[in-house]
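Q: How do we represent a protein-ligand complex in a form that can be generated token by token?
A: Start from the inputs.
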Amino acid sequence: MLALHCNYTGYIRVSVRSPTVAVASYRMTVLRAAEAEGVIMRSADAVVVGGGVNGASTAFFLARAGMSRVTLLERRQLGAGATGKSGALVRMHYTNPVESKLAHESLKVFRNWSEIVGGDCGFEATGFVQIVPPQYEEQLRANVDAQRAIGINTRVISAGELHEIEPAVCVDDVTVAAYEPDSGFADPNATLYSLVSAARDRDVTVRTGVEATGIIIEHGRVAGVDTSDGRIDTETVVLATGAWSGRLLDPLELDFGLEPRRVQVVVFRRPPELDHPHPVFIDATQGSWFRPEGVTGTLVGLELGVAGVDPDDLHEGVDQEYVRLCRRALAARIPAFRQATMRGGWAGMITMSPDGRPIIDQVPQVPGLYCMVGDSGTSFKTAPTIGMGLSEWITTGKPRTIDLSPFRSTRFAAGQPWHDVSAYGEDQLTISR
Ligand SMILES: Cc1cc2nc3c(=O)[nH]c(=O)nc-3n(C[C@H](O)[C@H](O)[C@H](O)COP(=O)(O)OP(=O)(O)OC[C@H]3O[C@@H](n4cnc5c(N)ncnc54)[C@H](O)[C@@H]3O)c2cc1C
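Then emit the structure tokens for the protein with flavin-adenine dinucleotide bound:
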């Protein structure tokens, strides 16, 4: 007689109430009984690999769409990758309408989180301001027009209006900016945990501490996943594996040109004269972004990333030189921060694709394999729609909420990487925000 208790962390506690259980068959008996009880799956209708926000979102929306046997695998703990370190800006302003739409559809979920997902994602609608150097005024106006056509609540504001919205801000070098009153930021862990909790409530099996070690291909299509805890048979696998994606893609000879990068953020204490939370800013003039953090802090990041870093050997702290650069960029926009106290900081890994846009696809070379990789430091805010789109693709044959074809994996090999006509300088300006 076996009693199984799952603590939902990937471990099963077994109480053996009869001494007649043979030791040799112990493990198999546990596994079979666990599968029979629905506690652990040796087969699944879909296996989602990666316990970050995109894996969790996909698992949640698959279950919400009615798929009954979904397993989510995470090699370490939930939020072990970029998600746990994210700045979690939720803004709609991109330099192309496709990403803006992805973000806009996601904002609808963030703003109605308790009804759609349940729980709390910590979304704060502080408003969002995009500042660009004066020579990009025309591009900014074109982007805002395109965003308004999608239905995004955004407008071009003058330097004077910006000063009214946030009097502490220096507008000497600003001609116009874009303003989104409905945007802001969320809490990345609260977002992730409530997605996972809602997925579990819909019977998704969540296994942490279990690594997918290989995708099994049989007869030219996905047949299962090898894991650190045995094989799982499945015809559908979703990779949302962040900086570790190459380990599963390389053996399949899938080279998407992914490049993991170490990125950092710093928290400063807000000085006493700035006693209110300011809006979220992306300041393309200073190459920075910042948002409120807690009651009296401001979180800052820069357009800087370091390549060639092993994600399993990451220096998780912040470099002193980076602190200096962040303070300088922040004070250039809000002078009150010139002598702000540094409170802390951390580093995380993002993964750049060759054109700085995520790869979201049903990989054509491998039927049954779906992916959300190459997050390019900007795929927190879009995770609800990414998960929704992938789940629609898997359950109905195509994404319905949004056309995901611009994110196809084949665009690089076909010589069609993404290019924004209304960019603010460099094409790849979307690092971690
Ligand atoms: C400092 C920082 C600031 C950021 N700021 C923003 C922002 O303001 N706005 C925004 O939209 N985005 C931002 N981002 C980017 C955003 O956080 C990421 O794009 C997003 O979190 C990616 O989520 P993910 O689920 O795709 O990947 P991840 O969160 O990296 O999750 C991947 C998970 O897969 C697991 N895994 C990998 N391989 C395996 C395997 N073989 N088996 C099992 N599990 C595996 C990993 O352990 C990891 O937990 C920021 C990122 C960083 C680091």
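The chain has a mean pLDDT of 91. The domain at 45-95+186-257+354-433 is CATH 3.50.50.60 (FAD/NAD(P)-binding domain).
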